[in-house]
Write a structure and sequence with these properties.
Helix 4 (about 95-105) packs parallel to helix 5 (about 125-140). It contains 15 helices and 16 strands. The two termini are about 15 Å apart. It has about 375 residues and is an alpha/beta fold. Strands 3-4-2-1-7-8-9-10 form an eight-stranded mixed β-sheet, with helices on both faces. A six-stranded parallel β-sheet has the order 13-12-11-14-15-16, sandwiched between helices. It is globular and about 60 Å long. It folds into two domains: about 1-170 and about 350-369, Glycogen Phosphorylase B (Rossmann fold, 3-Layer(aba) Sandwich); about 175-350, Glycogen Phosphorylase B (Rossmann fold, 3-Layer(aba) Sandwich), CATH 3.40.50.2000. The chain has helices at about 15-30, 45-50, 75-85, 95-105, 125-140, 150-155, 180-190, 210-220, 230-235, 250-260, 280-285, 300, 315-330, 330-350, 350-369, and strands at about 1-5, 35-40, 50, 55-60, 65, 70, 90-95, 110-115, 140-145, 165, 195-200, 220-225, 245-250, 265, 290-295, 310.
Length: about 375
């Protein structure tokens, strides 16, 4: 069975949270008799069309970008060609141009859309896009969300519950490199003792300004792994603090070393643009207690308050600092949270479970179609 994934960006152009989720679905289902391909946009389509981890990542030429939405005339042709060979089309929402391609190519194949996030930042443009968005969601066969929390709180999905299913995003523990003892020693020398860790792309909704203020209030050391558009601003905010350390984007082995060494993972995302939080799944996978914010999304599905960590109100630096203090001083509680986190990862968030659920969904759609 052939499945075509369609999203605006993918490896090697970018590899953020949504791209990683697509990659995990593609790799997981390929072990179950599914042949995945991915189509995305690129300014260098020939150079960046690659065979990646057992599947082709095809590119259409990116012509222009408006409000984070890529447009491409070439995409209509490339999508039509690849969709003709596919048994199922798998869209990844949101991307308004994708809706136009869906209707413009008039491909008659079973369709599933993974609803990654509501549109939050572009609220003005959403008013123009809303009619097309609802027409698109009404037209697809199935909608997938990664958590029941998001399904319950999304106004857009209220009218789509009959065809919406929950399939949590999953990660494969064996895909992560084991850091060498030398790498661990190097990071222990740099950050001896306890510290809190943040990992992720430094985007506006990640809430690092709140974490930096919490670090100022608490005095606890915080290590920030990642790069992104907000990096300069947040580095400037933390420039007078000796306990906040930006280490940039790291190789996987270094990131895993810091995950193993940290006291807890702090995930201060404060807006619904953070629809799930794969960094929290990574933390759970490595048995780390977590601190996150209640924003009505998958973050509170991964991190259960007082079970796998602590959940605080969004945008509340004093509450975040207090949660950090509780975990810092109570090692028994932190250890209990970490143990529960591993158990929750193994029961809900493995790549194998996710792949099995998607493979079943694909086969059901083809059988019905």
């Amino acid at each position: 069975m052939r499945v075509l994934h369609f999203f605006k960006t993918y490896w090697p152009d970018t590899f953020g949270g949504m791209e990683r989720a697509i990659h995990a679905i593609a790799c997981g289902t390929s072990k179950l008799g599914i042949e995945p391909t991915v189509l995305s946009l690129s300014r260098k389509p020939q150079q960046n069309t690659v065979f990646f981890d057992g599947h082709w990542a095809y590119k259409a030429r990116l012509d222009l970008e408006i409000a984070s939405t890529g447009f491409s005339l070439d995409a209509f042709k490339r999508f039509g060609e690849l969709a003709a060979k596919a048994d199922v089309i798998h869209y990844h929402f949101p991307w308004p141009f994708m809706d136009l391609v869906h209707f413009g190519t008039r491909v008659r194949k079973p369709t599933v859309v993974t609803y990654q996030s509501d549109i939050v930042k572009q609220s003005v443009l959403l008013q123009l896009y809303r009619p097309l968005m609802h027409r698109f969601l009404n037209s697809v066969d199935r909608i997938v969300v990664a958590s029941p929390n998001y399904l319950e709180t999304s106004k857009v999905l209220r009218g789509q519950r009959a065809k919406t299913v929950v399939i949590p995003n999953g990660l494969e523990a064996s895909a992560y490199p084991e850091p060498s003892e030398g790498r661990l020693r190097a990071w222990r020398r740099r950050f001896p003792g306890q510290f809190f860790l943040f990992t992720g792309v430094l985007r506006y909704y990640k809430g690092l300004h709140i974490l930096i203020e919490a670090a100022r209030l608490s005095g606890y050391p915080v290590v920030v792994v990642g790069a992104g558009p907000m990096e300069r601003e947040w580095r400037a905010q933390a420039s007078q603090l000796s306990n906040v350390h930006f280490v940039g984007a790291l190789e996987e082995e270094d990131k895993i070393a810091l995950l193993k060494l940290c006291t807890a993972v702090v995930f201060p995302s404060h807006l619904r643009s953070e629809a799930f939080g794969l960094s929290l799944v990574e933390a759970a996978m490595f048995g780390k207690p977590m601190i996150s914010c209640e924003i009505g999304t998958g973050t509170s599905f991964i991190n259960l308050d007082k079970v796998t960590g602590l959940v605080v109100p969004p945008g509340d630096a004093p509450a975040l600092a207090e949660a950090m203090a509780r975990i810092w001083v109570d090692s028994d509680m932190a250890g209990r949270f970490g143990k529960n986190a591993v158990e929750r990862y193994e029961s809900l968030f493995t790549a194998e479970q996710m792949a099995l659920a998607y493979a079943k969904l694909y086969r059901d759609l083809v059988r019905i179609g």
